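Box 3.1 — From sequence to structure: tRNA-2-methylthio-N(6)-dimethylallyladenosine synthase
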Amino acid sequence: MTITTKTYDVRTHGCQMNVHDSERLAGLLETAGYTDLASLPPAQRPEVADVVVFNTCAVRENAANKLYGNLGQLRPAKLKNPDLQIAVGGCLAQKDRSTIVERAPWVDVVFGTHNVGSLPALLDRARHNRAAEVEILEALETFPSTLPTRRDSAYSGWVSISVGCNNTCTFCIVPALRGKEKDRRPGEILAEVEALVAQGVVEITLLGQNVNTYGVEFGDRLAFGKLLRACGQVEGLERVRFTSPHPAAFTDDVIAAMAETTNVMPSLHMPLQSGSDRVLKAMRRSYRSARFLDILDRVRAQIPDAAITTDLIVGFPGETEEDFQDTLDVVRASRFSSAFTFQYSIRPGTPAAEMDDQVPKKVVQERFDRLIELQEEVSWAGNRELEGREVEVLVAPGEGRKDAETERLSGRARDNRLVHFAVPEGLDRPRPGDAVTVQVTYGAPHHLIADSGVQSGVYAVRRTRGGDAWAALQEGGTPGAVRKPTVSLGIPTVGAPPAREVTAPACAVAD
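Predicted structure (token representation):
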């Protein structure tokens, strides 16, 4: 008897929250009996998986065009194989709902941000009824951490501490799609962190739409700083990161927790959006440029080597040349190591979409180019200052697109800068998940080069449990097939979370 392997392919667009949601979608499909298309040897892979899932983003203007373009490319495959199932989830699905099936009637399932766990049942229902299933919930059905997860990495993991957002930024549609903030209890978060570490994870990133308001639901405004300190007590956890905070709620206790907790990394993503106080007010961002710069000064006073990154929007409605010059001034003063820069685009359903004085595209593009040029100068100057400095790199697979050509490996320094480093011939070669100490030989605008190992300089490999976990996955693997950790089951909870003894005790207020 021939057993046919049913395959899936999850395609992710958007932020880290979507990336983590896609890990859960993969876990759900694995537990339902499907196999990741990429995990099969290339010769055994079908051209298209049996189930293709698009996990969408609605933040950028071209998000819809990108989705419908991808759906259009799949239409011939659907006509050829009616049993192929196509599902669309994520923020754009939450926003557009039945419009997706109207524009692409070959789609089988549409589900929203609040009911990720419904995907297998919706696929079964659509298959049985031979009709599209559209299910969009207005409130969170179950906290995503309770769902099975198939992580992308053996040594690094995402941990959600909250979902949703209570802010009302006029350019952002995320609160309407993700809902109000919902916080997990610290004990549940630490239980997940400890479980990941037991599986070989050495680096975690705490995720939330606004991580530094964590605790609002259970009335503890110092909860995020306490959580960082608690993560510092988890044995075997080497690196802790988080994203993203909001400047308006960023407090000194969080800065102190970052500075005093050795495994919390000296990197901070602090979204500025605009350097103009007038524009910030129109954006409904409840801070001003002086307050923003003061935060950075306080961070650098306690964490001198912190690398600070940001988000910037160019061409918000009503932005004048003077406003834009204010942004350039703040960027110069902030000395960001890098910036995610965006041209403002109208998002239907946001207050900014209805504002007068939309800035002409030509003007936005010209300002955008100037901002990019300035930030590249700032980034390059900051990276050149690191030449000659030793850095510890957590080795990653696939971070360097030119690694094969340059015979280098790549990974992230503690401050999250991308480092490409040379491996001396005949010396220990690190695995993904291992740590390497090297010396920076050149600071480029977007990365660091560390060829000290082949220049008779610093080169030291430290084997880690993360590297062991990565190596264990490769044993018996097929060349060309992607190897990922097995599915981790979620931690289901009903009602109030039970009392739990935590080995990391630092959820009390620090002295």
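Summary of the box: Confidence is low (pLDDT under 50) at residues 492-511.
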